[in-house]
Write a structure and sequence with these properties.
globular; DNA primase DNAg catalytic core, N-terminal domain; 8 helices; 4-stranded antiparallel sheet; Dna Topoisomerase Vi A Subunit, Chain: A, domain 2; 8 strands
Length: about 210
């Protein structure tokens, strides 16, 4: 559980990072995310990282917003290079010791009997904000936490938008094991994630997949 000091530090960090959001606009536009959507999600860009966020400098900041406030961040590299080719550099980075968290939990409180699950934050934003589908995100089957089932079990249907790869197969298998028939696999075309499909085919096509 976060202390009050930690909570205040995270709130301050979001305010600082979001004040530099314009630095991330070219990347966000390339993903179909406009300024209003980015602002509603509290996205930002790190120029002066707070304590513990040193490795986040120059990255897109993605806060995990809850009814109690910001509980953590994921930071994404948005530079024009192949992250895999750079030593000790990953596309996504989180502070050491940060536990896996569900992303987008405010959507749980929307008036809906269905919820959608995506593998990452950008795909979650795409479903929720750009396709008007209440959505959560979590970082793959290996990071599943048993208590997340309690968040999902009250929904009649849980649509799982897993990537068409080994990791995605593991994700849908895990959710179907945990949730049974309420977990419904949305089959994505080979080579596409949710955001790529949205950019190429538009929101109506995405909504027509389930």
């Amino acid at each position: 559980m976060l202390s009050e000091e930690q909570r205040q530090s995270l709130v301050l960090a979001q305010e600082m990072y979001s004040s530099n959001l314009e630095r991330a606009i070219p990347y966000l536009k390339s993903r179909g995310i406009d300024l209003a959507t980015a602002s509603s999600r509290g996205l930002g860009f790190v120029t002066e990282p707070i304590k513990g966020h040193k490795n986040a400098k120059g990255r897109l900041s993605i806060p995990y917003q809850t009814p109690a406030g910001v509980i953590g961040f994921t930071f994404r590299c948005i530079q024009d290079h192949n992250c895999k080719e750079i030593d000790k550099h990953s596309k996504y980075w989180k502070p050491g010791g940060s536990p896996p968290e569900l992303y987008g939990v405010l959507d749980v409180f929307k008036d809906t009997l269905d919820i959608h699950i995506a593998e990452g934050e950008i795909d979650t934003i795409t479903l929720s904000e750009l396709c008007s589908l209440p959505a959560l995100g979590f970082p793959g089957a290996t990071n599943w936490r048993p208590w997340w089932k309690n968040v999902l079990q009250d929904f009649q249907r849980v649509f799982v938008w897993s990537d068409p790869d080994v990791g995605g197969d593991s994700m849908i298998n895990k959710l179907q094991k945990e949730l049974g028939r309420s977990a419904i696999h949305v089959q994505l075309p080979e080579g596409y994630d949710v955001n790529a499909l949205y950019l190429e085919r538009g929101p109506e096509f995405v909504r027509g997949l389930f």
